[in-house]
Amino acid sequence: MFCVLFIVFYCLISAELGFADTWTQKADFGGAQRLVAFGFSTADKGYAGGGIDHSNGTYFKDFWEYDPVTGIWTQKADLPINMSGAHVSFSINNKGYVGTGPMGGSDKTKLFLEYNPTLNEWSRKADFGGTARMHASGFVIAGKGYIGTGWGTNNDPYNPSP
């Protein structure tokens, strides 16, 4: 019942305030087409990379930054390893984190990487302390990343500080 009331309320308010129900296409992604890439945002930029081309089994190590002000995708430092997909990613304190999932076609892993946009560098961080998993979900509360669900069994916090 609550969901129905929320939807009706949202529709009424949206119509009253003149919210547009349209999407505006922006610049196409700068890299090759891929599946199961990861992405995160820090400050005022968006980032995407990794993934796989399932037509030929190519794993991608490229990494891209999107600037919504200029509408331009810029290639950044390549990932230090193949990130074949099904990873969890989030940002904390203007740095991006990506981990778990398969690395270069291997099975589930606990490996975690940090991207520093100021230095345009990747570094390895402490491994995820929970069960190795892939296809997980992640979010951040009060400076800590949380990882749950996926092909693993626990819902465990991840603190990027070594």
Structural write-up:
- This protein is mainly β.
- It is built from 1 helix and 13 strands, in the order H-E-E-E-E-E-E-E-E-E-E-E-E-E.
- The protein has one helix at residues 2-17, and strands spanning 38-42, 45-49, 52-53, 58-59, 63-67, 72-75, 88-92, 95-99, 112-116, 121-124, 137-141, 144-148, 156-158.
- A 4-stranded antiparallel sheet has the order 1-2-5-6, with no helix packed on it.
- Strand 7 (88-92) and strand 8 (95-99) form a beta hairpin.
- The radius of gyration is 18 Å and the shape is globular.
Brief summary:
By secondary structure, this protein is mostly beta strands. Helices cover 10% and strands 34% of the residues.
What is the strand and helix layout of this fold?
Elements: H1 2-17, E1 38-42, E2 45-49, E3 52-53, E4 58-59, E5 63-67, E6 72-75, E7 88-92, E8 95-99, E9 112-116, E10 121-124, E11 137-141, E12 144-148, E13 156-158
Antiparallel strand pairs: 1-2, 2-5, 3-4, 5-6, 7-8, 8-9, 9-10, 11-12, 12-13
